Amino acid sequence: MKKYLVILFVFSIVFSAGCSKKYIKGTDIEDNEDSRALFNVFAHYVKGLRDQQPELFINYISKNYYDNNGTDDPSDDVDYDKVVEILNSEQFHGLKNMDLVYFIKDLKLDRNTGNAKLLYYFEVRFRRKSALPSETEDSFVKSDGTTNHRLSDTNQMIFVREEDGWKIVSGL
Fold this sequence. Notes:
Layout: H1 2-19, H2 33-50, E1 66-67, E2 78-79, H3 80-87, H4 90-93, E3 96-110, E4 115-129, E5 146-162, E6 165-170
Antiparallel strand pairs: 1-2, 3-4, 4-5, 5-6
């Protein structure tokens, strides 16, 4: 009897290990083709933003992109054309020493509808031309004309599966 219990125990371990889900290392996110593809899109976004090369991720933005920026005020709404305008602006390219740190918190993926939501925390640091007047000649500390900035928040990026893959539809 004891022999049969041991065999049963071994088979139950093997069976349960074979049926367990795989997760992306360091997360509670299921490792599958879609989650990997979504992380790939997000990685292109991060690299393009960090290097200020929007061409690295512009193809991953849906033509149906729309973001109301969390307000009821339509003047701050952003669509695909506005995103392209911002990414090509002097203001965006005037940012210096851009650095971006992020932590992925969760990914909700609905394969049936082809929608996904990526929740992440980010902190971006950069320098930009100062709006303040330069110091006088006798100033002890000489400014280079730029000021440091830091933004941090939790953000939700929304994706939709289109014919040519996953695209960002909100949350840049």
